[in-house]
């Protein structure tokens, strides 16, 4: 590039900026990865940003990224990120011209925002009518019916109490889905298969709905068995600021979101392996029809359930930027945040329906601070002592709102990041996801990397044979981690033994020279005993240059690596097969934890002499927890159902724990006295 060309390009970009100028300052009423995502686009568009935060989020990444930041209250969302009076005051104080809001929206806030419109404040999103209509599942279902959109059979009114819930469920026919009218994100949702589960589901769903959305209204509809969860991204043209909607609607293809746990998405992809062009077009046209029916004016998401015969039913419309929007951006090339800002300012969309492509394939994994071995993921809290995103890899995108040193607390969603990979086809995107998960370093909290990796390499998923029941069907006894084949077990044993020897050799040297000048010549062979999964395996290791020859089960394996023991990632080649491993921990007794194929395995590596002597070491007795009720996660006790002296039977509820806006019933493990 010559200086003349460079100046010409810069001048052209300045002309484009001034000709399409939107807002000077935008307030982001959100936190975490989505707030960071909005800030990135604002920087690209030359818009200054204002972040709000709670007191515990004072050092959060979105606070550091924004041009200005204002504290709006203490940790609980109701007192900070949903503190409408405080947010309105920040808007006035900072003179923000626009507001981006992606949290649970209250009608009172929208009313306040409508009042601010007269003062020149623009809401980045649809108008109040569309949000209220689509945010209420009961009203949205009625609107969908009027717009000739396929809907799920069910009761279209508000369920008053548990008795009415049972009556309605019987009329519809079990199983049924009980859900919060103002809900989303899997909160306030329960599946009921009989009267007892309906009563319990009504109780917990109404409590969660009141806690999360300030609205305990519920509806009941038929549960579609073995469905797929597919979303259609919708965008609508707005010609003028605060004007009536008179433009064109676009559908930006679908997202496959069937891999879920507790009605919350875990893995998403675009496009779907299930849809043919005709079904895709029919769903897209119905999504657009619904958007036009409510005079929608922004980016939104219409969700459908699709059965095995490709019959599809409207589920809900989300009037916000969805968590999984990056996969749509990858295959269409559009920046949805930029489009939302332009539409809010009154500019028309720059594309026609024929211009919307499906280029390649994108997969997104939601990386959570959760223990996947407990109900496919119970929340974990803690500080990220070490954190390294796999951004050194090609076609990998990470949307996150945390960094090394960040805290995962009980107050907010336990999401760490959204990991997205892109490929020219599905196989390429999945292979890159597998490698990206292996190269993702997370320390300090439990995480679901092992579950995500197992899902994307599972034969059923690879073949596209998926539904919302995928996890319970594939893992009926719960997730147990990766099951090693005989070859993989030998590879892990050989790698662990080689790593042990490499550490022993390094410990004998200091600054590249032997610690003791008169030390004997180097050893070239070692006899070890490796404990793994209840088995004890004799392993013989010999060194040849930078490689190790390891004999396991009578078979010899050649293990090579750079053996950079200071790196959290270690690339190892075993008989020509490349593996990326992570050594999570080790101690002086030979115990070591190694992440291999996504799952962390605990091993103990001892010399032959130490192994022979270990039989004299007493084992610590396991704690008897049968008489103890221990919460599987940190949270708040919101209800206690017993008192000291009560007799309880096995399975009886003792208390209810609320963690990250989800309520969980704690039950007695055996019959006894409290």
UniProtKB/TrEMBL annotation:
EC number: 6.4.1.3
Pathway(s) this gene product operates in, as recorded in its UniProt entry: Metabolic intermediate metabolism; propanoyl-CoA degradation; succinyl-CoA from propanoyl-CoA: step 1/3
InterPro entries assigned to the protein according to its UniProt record, in alphabetical order: ATP-grasp (IPR011761), ATP_grasp_subdomain_1 (IPR013815), BC-like_N (IPR005481), Biotin_BS (IPR001882), Biotin_carboxylase_complex (IPR050856), Biotin_carboxylation_dom (IPR011764), Biotin_COase_C (IPR005482), Biotin_lipoyl (IPR000089)
Localization per record: Mitochondrion matrix
Needed co-factor(s): biotin
Biotin carboxylation domain segment(s): 22-476
Gene Ontology MF annotations: ATP binding; metal ion binding; propionyl-CoA carboxylase activity
Residue ranges constituting the ATP-grasp domain according to the UniProt record: 141-345
Residues of the Lipoyl-binding domain: 620-674
Reaction catalysed by this enzyme: butanoyl-CoA + hydrogencarbonate + ATP = (2S)-ethylmalonyl-CoA + ADP + phosphate + H(+); propanoyl-CoA + hydrogencarbonate + ATP = (S)-methylmalonyl-CoA + ADP + phosphate + H(+)
Alphabetically ordered keywords of this record: ATP-binding, Biotin, Ligase, Lipid degradation, Lipid metabolism, Magnesium, Manganese, Metal-binding, Nucleotide-binding, Signal, Transit peptide
Annotated Gene Ontology cellular component terms: mitochondrial matrix
One BP annotation, GO: lipid catabolic process
Pfam families: Biotin_carb_C, Biotin_carb_N, Biotin_lipoyl, CPSase_L_D2, PCC_BT
Signal sequence annotation: 1-29
Enzyme class: ligase
PROSITE patterns with a match to the protein in the record: ATP_GRASP, BC, BIOTIN, BIOTINYL_LIPOYL, CPSASE_1, CPSASE_2
Protein name, per record: Propionyl-CoA carboxylase alpha chain, mitochondrial
Organism whose genome encodes this protein: Leptocoma aspasia
Lineage: Eukaryota, Metazoa, Chordata, Craniata, Vertebrata
Gene name of this polypeptide: Pcca
């Amino acid at each position: 590039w010559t200086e003349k060309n460079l100046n010409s390009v810069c001048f052209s970009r300045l002309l484009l900026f001034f000709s399409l100028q939107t807002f000077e300052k935008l307030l982001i009423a959100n936190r975490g990865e989505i707030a960071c995502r909005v800030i990135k686009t604002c920087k690209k568009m030359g818009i200054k940003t204002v972040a709000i935060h709670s007191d515990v989020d004072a050092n959060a990444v979105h606070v550091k990224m924004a041009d200005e930041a204002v504290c709006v209250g203490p940790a609980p969302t109701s007192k900070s990120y949903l503190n409408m009076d405080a947010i309105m005051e920040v808007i006035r104080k900072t003179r923000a011209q626009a507001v981006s809001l992606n949290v649970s929206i209250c009608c009172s806030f929208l009313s306040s925002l409508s009042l601010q419109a007269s003062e020149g404040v623009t809401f980045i999103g649809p108008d109040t009518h569309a949000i209220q209509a689509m945010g209420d599942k009961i009203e949205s279902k009625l609107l969908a019916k009027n717009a000739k959109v396929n809907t799920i059979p069910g009761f279209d009114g508000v369920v008053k109490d548990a008795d009415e819930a049972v009556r309605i469920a019987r009329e519809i026919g079990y199983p049924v889905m009980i859900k919060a009218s103002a809900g989303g994100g899997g909160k306030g949702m329960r599946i009921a298969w009989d009267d007892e589960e309906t009563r319990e589901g009504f109780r917990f769903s109404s409590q969660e709905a009141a806690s999360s959305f300030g609205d305990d209204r519920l509806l009941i509809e038929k549960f579609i068995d073995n469905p797929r969860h597919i979303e259609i991204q919708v965008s609508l043209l707005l010609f003028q600021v605060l004007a009536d909607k008179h433009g064109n609607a676009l559908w930006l293809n679908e997202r496959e979101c069937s891999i879920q746990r507790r009605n919350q998405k875990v893995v998403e992809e675009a496009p779907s392996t299930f849809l043919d062009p005709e079904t895709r077009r029919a769903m897209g046209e119905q999504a657009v029809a619904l958007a036009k029916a409510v005079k929608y004016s922004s980016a939104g998401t219409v969700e459908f359930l699709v059965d095995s015969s490709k019959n599809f039913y409207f589920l809900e419309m989300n009037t916000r930027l969805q968590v999984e929007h990056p996969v749509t951006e990858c295959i269409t090339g559009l920046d949805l945040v930029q489009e939302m800002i332009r539409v809010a300012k009154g500019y028309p969309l720059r594309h026609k329906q024929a211009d919307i492509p499906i280029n390649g394939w994108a997969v997104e994994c939601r990386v959570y601070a959760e223990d996947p071995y407990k109900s496919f993921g119970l929340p974990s809290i803690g500080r990220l002592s070490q954190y390294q995103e796999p951004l050194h890899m090609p076609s990998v995108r990470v949307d996150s709102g945390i960094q090394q040193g960040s805290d995962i607390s009980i107050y907010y969603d336990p999401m760490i990041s959204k990991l997205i990979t892109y490929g020219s086809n599905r196989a390429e995107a999945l292979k890159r996801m597998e490698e990206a998960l292996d190269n993702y370093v997370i320390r300090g909290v439990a995480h679901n990397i092992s579950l995500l990796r197992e899902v994307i390499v599972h034969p059923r998923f690879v073949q596209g044979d998926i539904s919302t029941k995928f996890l319970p069907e594939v893992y009926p006894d719960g997730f147990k981690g990766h099951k090693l084949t005989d070859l993989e077990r030998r590879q892990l044993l050989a790698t662990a033994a080689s790593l042990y020897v490499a550490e022993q050799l390094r410990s004998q040297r200091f600054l590249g020279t032997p610690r003791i000048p008169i030390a004997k010549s180097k050893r070239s062979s070692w006899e070890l005993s490796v404990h793994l999964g209840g088995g004890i395996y004799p392993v013989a290791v010999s060194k040849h240059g930078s490689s190790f020859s390891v004999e396991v089960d009578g078979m010899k394996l050649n293990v090579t690596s750079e053996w950079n023991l200071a790196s959290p990632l270690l690339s190892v080649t075993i008989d020509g097969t490349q593996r990326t491993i992570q050594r999570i921990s080790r101690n002086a007794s030979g115990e070591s934890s190694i992440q291999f194929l996504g799952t962390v395995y605990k091993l103990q590596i001892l010399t032959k002499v130490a192994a022979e002597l270990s039989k004299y070491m007493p084992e610590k007795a396991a704690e008897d927890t049968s008489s103890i009720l221990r919460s599987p996660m940190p949270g708040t006790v919101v209800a206690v159902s017993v008192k000291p002296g009560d007799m309880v039977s096995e399975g009886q509820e003792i208390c209810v724990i609320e963690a990250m806006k989800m309520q969980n019933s704690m039950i007695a493990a055996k019959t006894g006295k409290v």
